[in-house]
Amino acid sequence: MKFMKYGFLSLIFLLGVSLFVGCSSDEETTEIRLAEVTRSIFYAPLYVAISEGFFEEEGIEIDLTTTWGGDTTMTTLLSDGADVALVGAETSIYVYAQGANDPAINFAQLTQTDGTFLVSREPVEDFEWDDLKGSTFLGQRAGGMPQMVGEYVLKQNGIEPHEDLELIQNIDFGNIPSAFASGTGDYVQLFEPQATQFEEDGIGYIIDSFGTQSGNVPYTVFMSKQSYLEENEEALESFTRAIYKAQQWVQEQPEEVVAESIVDFFEDTSLETIEQVIERYRDQGSYAETPILDEDGWYLLQEMMDESGELPMDVPYEDLVNTDIPNQIVNE
Fold first, then answer.
1. Which of 221, 220, 217, 223 minimizes the C-alpha distance to 301?
2. Whether the predicted pLDDT of 3 surpasses 90
3. How does DSSP assign 107-137, residue by residue?
4. What global pTM score does this model have?
5. In percent, how much of the chain has pLDDT > 90?
6. CA 242 to CA 245: how far, in whole Å?
7. Cβ 168 vs Cβ 136: under 8 Å
8. Residue 45 pLDDT > 80
């Protein structure tokens, strides 16, 4: 009888511990609302961090929303519709220049080159950038990173974008591929997987990469409002740790393994195409290997903005870049 009594009490105790542990686990999980500027294979390490459970390991639950465009993404962040934004670092400069009381702070880098490719309507043998002179070039929206990098690369190759070619920049980001497919432009600046899909369909031909031409810049970064970062530094450390795990994983795994990990995020893209895109981005060093946004890249970004007439003011590195979080994670 005594044995049954103690056994019953032990069972109650074990159940209590189990319930307590369950509650504790829930309390330790932090939800972070993440707004991404677009859905792109260019952001593969983010999707890997979700699908491989790296966020979960760090006690982070991601609520991911695609907000389609830099303006919309920053509006979402600044109006507290998101805790973290994945967007071009230039947007934080625009916000800062407007005198924001609670600026957006860049705390982790995801991509470190431009993600677009130069696509021609016809095959081009022995391509040289001078071939673009006198052509119709379908570029990206003014003020965004693709446009600024595009113009910077053209100038680096001796082409004045607004003088040496007919530059079209009034087409919405999402409609640029269809505009080219329907006959607009001799050349177009395209992200993946559209560039590879156009090659497969015989619509266009990849002849060069803006990413390899431009050098390393903080092209896409994670940022949060300064107030959120100060109040949730531990959560953002965990977030960044998960991203760093994913960055290392993407570098180490074969492209087919990475493609399999993220395929569910791209229902309309074949596994084979995803593999090709990952290989191309990885070979040209587009995926940042660590979350650290370096100082040289920050000032190259502002040089590009200035070249295109879009830099509202010079912003010191330390004003909008948090280095404590990524440096701590990388040096652990």
1. 217
2. no
3. EEEEE-S--EEEEESS--SS--GGGGTTSEE
4. 0.89
5. 88
6. 5
7. yes
8. yes
The band of 173, judged by pLDDT with boundaries at 50, 70 and 90, is: confident
DSSP conformational letter for 203: S
- Give the Cα separation of 247 and 243 in Å (integer): 6
Q: What is the pLDDT of residue 27?
A: 58
| 246-272 residue pLDDT tens | 999 999 999 999 999 999 999 999 999
Q: Give the E-state strand segments of 6-77 in sequence order.
A: 30-36, 60-66
- 126: region left, alpha or beta (phi > 0 left; psi from -120 to 50 alpha): left
Same fold, 29-113+217-330 and 116-214: yes
Residue type for position 189: Q
Instruction: Return the structure tokens found at 220.
Output: 């896409």
User: What is the pLDDT at residue 258?
Assistant: 98
Rounded to the nearest integer, the mean pLDDT of the chain is 91
Domain map (residue ranges) of the chain: 29-113+217-330, 116-214
The predicted pLDDT at position 15 comes to 34
- Contact at 8 Å (CB) between 119 and 188? yes
Q: How far apart are CA 56 and CA 62, in angstroms?
A: 9
Sheet with 30-36, side-by-side order of all strands? 60-66, 30-36, 84-87, 220-225, 104-111
| Distance, CA of 47 to CA of 281 (rounded, Å) | 15
Nearest to 291 by CA among 257, 255, 322: 322
Amino acid at 296: D
Q: List the single range of 5-9, 64-68, 150-154 with lowest mean pLDDT.
A: 5-9
Q: How is residue 219 annotated by DSSP? A: -
Count Cα atoms within 13 angstroms, Cβ side, for 306: 9
Which CATH number among 3.30.420.240, 3.40.50.11540, 3.40.190.10, 3.40.50.300 corresponds to the domain 116-214?
Answer: 3.40.190.10
Pick the CATH number of 29-113+217-330 from 3.40.190.10, 3.30.360.10, 3.30.230.10, 3.40.50.1820: 3.40.190.10
Nearest Cα residue to 321 out of 224, 254, 216, 245: 224
